[in-house]
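Need a sequence for this fold. Nothing fancy.
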């Protein structure tokens, strides 16, 4: 069946240094999976919180599914992530460091199941962001000159 990317957190690579990446399952209700399959999910303000040896996706917005009527879900409710116990303990150890958080990178459907890619991240300072933009522009300029030559 393959992989269908449903939503991405486009600002994540700009705002954070990404360290470790993990794939986790996403526990959803019936109307939520219908909305996810329709692509009506936003990861803009979302983050992952670890509590009681469980990982939770917090502040991800999944739009209500129109046909669910009264059986609909709350759009920003916390959703449980399915990870191995060792992965959760490793994530918990990482988050105890100052300035480190866990953010979602993308939500996708893999063989009909909702999966989420998460990463341990450290926030960038303003000068780090400027440096990344300058490097990207320089790389683009070099590629442009090489393409003109060929």
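Here you go.
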């Amino acid at each position: 069946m393959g992989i269908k990317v449903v939503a991405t957190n486009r600002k994540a690579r700009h705002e954070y240094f990404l360290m470790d990446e993990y794939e986790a399952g996403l526990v959803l209700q019936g109307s939520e999976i219908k909305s996810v399959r329709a692509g009506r999910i936003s990861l803009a303000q979302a983050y992952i919180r670890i509590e009681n040896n469980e990982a939770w996706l917090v502040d991800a917005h999944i739009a209500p599914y129109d046909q669910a009527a009264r059986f609909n879900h709350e759009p920003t409710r916390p959703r449980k992530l399915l990870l191995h116990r060792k992965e959760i303990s490793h994530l918990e150890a990482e988050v105890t460091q100052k300035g480190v958080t866990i953010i979602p990178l993308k939500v996708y459907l893999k063989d009909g199941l909702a999966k989420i890619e998460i990463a341990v991240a450290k926030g960038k300072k303003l000068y780090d962001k400027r440096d990344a933009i300058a490097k990207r522009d320089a790389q683009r300029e070099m590629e442009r000159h090489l393409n003109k030559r060929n």
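For context: Strands lie at 3-8, 16-26, 41-42, 47-51, 54-58, 61-62, 79-82, 100-110, 113-123.
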